[in-house]
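Appendix C: a fully annotated inverse folding record. The material below is reproduced so that readers can follow the format used throughout the book. The structure is listed first as tokens, followed by the designed sequence.
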């Protein structure tokens, strides 16, 4: 049976399923109240008439999306596998670990103004643990309070610095209060 352009092959009591060619595009229309369901015993495949893959949906297996016949996104029993870059324009919520498994150097590139690592706190909201501002400073926080910050002149520490060792003579330290006259310091080594 051959149908001309815009002649619809209709199926169903209400002609709910229609297959036709408009002269420019080919259509499979579900005009009824239900869904259009494509089913296969081993899988469902969508592709270009020349054989290029677009979507592979395997029964009890992966669903793979292709770009120009190259697999880019595939579901797996453990989650989703992405081949290539992943550009996201909204929030990403990660419920598990974020692992970098590439050999060599791994990067987190951020093109915006300030990059934050935050943790949920007891009240609704978040407290900052780490902050890095483009062309400016980096800050590290403890319980939401800034404790270490880089500046154009060096590093600012808020609180006590505890070290297990020290190198240098300290002659360039500023803002250090001298001990009062008559103070005796005793150093001893334990066994």
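Designed amino acids, in order:
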């Amino acid at each position: 049976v051959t149908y001309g352009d815009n002649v619809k092959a209709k199926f169903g009591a209400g002609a709910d399923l229609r297959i036709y060619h408009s002269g420019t595009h080919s259509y499979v229309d579900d005009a009824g109240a239900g869904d259009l369901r494509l089913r296969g015993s081993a899988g469902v495949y969508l592709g270009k008439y020349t054989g290029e893959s677009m979507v592979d949906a395997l029964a009890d297996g992966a669903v793979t999306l292709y770009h120009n016949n190259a697999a880019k996104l595939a579901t797996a029993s453990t989650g989703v596998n992405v081949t290539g870059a992943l550009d996201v324009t909204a929030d990403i919520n990660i419920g598990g670990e974020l692992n970098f498994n590439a050999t060599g150097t791994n990067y987190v590139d951020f093109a915006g103004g300030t990059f934050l690592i935050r943790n949920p706190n007891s009240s609704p909201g978040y407290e900052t643990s780490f902050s890095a501002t483009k062309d400016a400073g980096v800050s590290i926080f403890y319980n939401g309070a800034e404790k270490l910050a880089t500046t154009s002149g060096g590093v600012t520490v808020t609180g006590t610095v505890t070290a297990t060792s020290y190198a240098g003579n300290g002659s360039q330290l500023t803002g250090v209060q001298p001990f009062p006259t008559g103070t005796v310091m005793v150093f001893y080594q334990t066994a």
